[in-house]
Structure formats: structure tokens, C-alpha cells
């Protein structure tokens, strides 16, 4: 019985593009699935106390690696994808291993990752001759133009990207659940509480933290690759650096990083909120939409630190506990 609801949800998502949705609706669904997957990748680290503020670095490295290989070497994305993921993993290893080895934790680790995102963003800007710098770059269209090209991963019909994003999102959820139900979860929870005590009982702290970091980095890079290929335009400010990293963190926290669907719920809310505010204000009061968006996120984080799904789950547990407490009393009074 417990598998019926997830299977029904997946079936609805598979059928959604064939229900007469507009192109804009499918566009929003694609973005929600991609950012939901990236948020899920971040929460794999974040929920164990590894608060990274530099995941934009992995998004940027993945997206730009594939685009540069395609634009300048005409290498199919099927070659660029593994190379982009490999570079993201290498970057995570170069930064993560020394940090974990020398016990850089807490806000020091957060600042280290924050600097990583900025280094990648500034490097992209500095290589302006190839990347277009702060002006960004456009992914070359396949020649001659075609509506469907699996070789170039270019499709005029958004439904192709929808199903790619859906598959990637499901893989992200599977990875989250796999870690949740493994022995690694207990080890990582112990490490997040006390590294010294964890090491004293035989847990290899550096290895456990490095493993979950590499999984998170690889998944994030894959999300960045699909995002760049879908948008066909890459910009360092929207694919790397502090801004995009914080958006991932905020969405995951707002939705609930301790729930498998929490980051996706956060992606839904943040995307819809941002688009609604942008549509409502338009070109009037420039910046007010971002201001309201930021304030609402801050209030949500302050008053719902467990996120929306975490808060709802806590309320449901309290009600269930209250119901179980009152039923025996009612039975006794009736007797």
C-alpha cells in the first residue's frame, strides 16, 4: 500500500505534458524539476551539518564544461556531460578533502565553500574570450537546424527536456532515500553531533564526509548541465557564485531539507513566488520583487526552521500522538 501513492504521483508527472498544458507551464515544470533536483543534491550534505554555500560552483563547472566543448570542439554533450561531472568531482575533492582532513567545520566550512563559488564565477568572467565573461554565452545550435537532435541534446519541443528533468529528479530522490536508509546515515548523524566521539568509535570521518560531498557535487553538476542545455544561454551570475548558491540553500531550507520532497517544494514556492512578483511589478519599482522575495524567505526560515514539509510533519505527528493519548482515556471512561 505504501508504494501506491508514490507510483500514482510519478504516473501523474509522466502524463502531465499530455494534458494540454501551455508551453509556459511546461517551462515552469522543467525549471521546478531541475532546481528541485539541485536542492535535493544540496540537502544530501546540508541535513548532516555540511552547510555548503558554494554549490553554484558545481552548477557552473558542469554547465560551462559541456557548452565550451560543444561550441569550440563540436563534441557532443554525451562527451561533455561525464567530463563536466568529473571536473565538478575533482573540484569537490580538491576543496573538500583538505577541509575535512583538517577539521574545517561549521561557519568556517561554509565560508570556504562560499569562496569556492566566487572563485569559479570570477574565473568564468576572467576567461571572457571563451566564455563571454559577464555578458554570458549562447550554446551553438546544431547545423542544419532540426527540431529533435539527440546528438546535440537540442529539442524545440519542451516535453523532451521535461522528461529528461523528470528522470534526473527521480534519480536525485532515489539517491537521497538510499543514503537515508543506509548505515551511512547513522555515521553522518554521529559526525554532525561530535566528530571526535565518532572517530573514537571507529567511524572514518573524512571518508564519510567526502563520500557524501562527492555525491552531492556530481548530482549538482548534472543539474547545472541540464539547466544550461535547456536555457541555451549561460551566464556566470545565474549559474555560479554567491547568489545562485544562496537561492539553492534558501529553497531547500524553506521546503524542508530533512524531507525527501522538501527541496522540491521549496523550488516550487520560490520559482512561483519570484515569477509572480516579477509579473505583478513588471518594470515598475525595480528591485521591489527581489526585496519582497528575500523578506518572505527570511520570515519563513525564522518561523519555520524545519521548513514547510518539516513543520507539517511535526504537526501531523503531534496530532497523531494526541489522538493516541485520548483514545485509551475515552475507552477507560466508557468502561
Describe this entry's structure for a reader:
The protein is an all-alpha fold and 335 residues long. It has a domain of 228 residues. The chain is 76% helix and 2% strand. The strands form two sheets. It has a two-stranded antiparallel ribbon. It has a two-stranded antiparallel sheet with strand order 2-3. Helix 2 runs antiparallel to helix 10 and helix 13 runs antiparallel to helix 14. The two termini are 34 Å apart. The C terminus is likely disordered.
Q: Nearest-angstrom radius of gyration?
A: 22 Å
Largest sheet: 2 strands, antiparallel
The side-by-side strand order for the widest beta sheet comes to 1-4
Low-confidence stretches: 326-335
Q: Which structural category fits the helices and strands?
A: mainly alpha
Strand content: under 5%
Q: Using DSSP, what is the number of strands?
A: 4
Taken in chain order, the helices and strands follow as HHHHHHEEEHHHHEHHHHH
Distance between the termini: 34 Å
User: Residue share in helices?
Assistant: over 70%
What features would you highlight for this structure?
two-stranded antiparallel ribbon; 335 residues; disordered C terminus; globular; mainly alpha; 76% helix
Question: Which secondary structure elements does this structure contain, and how are they paired or packed?
Answer:
Layout: H1 4-15, H2 23-46, H3 56-73, H4 77-101, H5 106-126, H6 128-131, E1 137-138, E2 148-149, E3 154-155, H7 158-180, H8 183-193, H9 195-200, H10 205-231, E4 233-234, H11 236-239, H12 241-255, H13 262-281, H14 288-303, H15 307-334
Antiparallel strand pairs: 1-4, 2-3
Helix pairs in contact: 2-7, 2-10, 2-12, 2-13, 3-4, 3-5, 3-10, 4-10, 7-10, 12-13, 12-15, 13-14
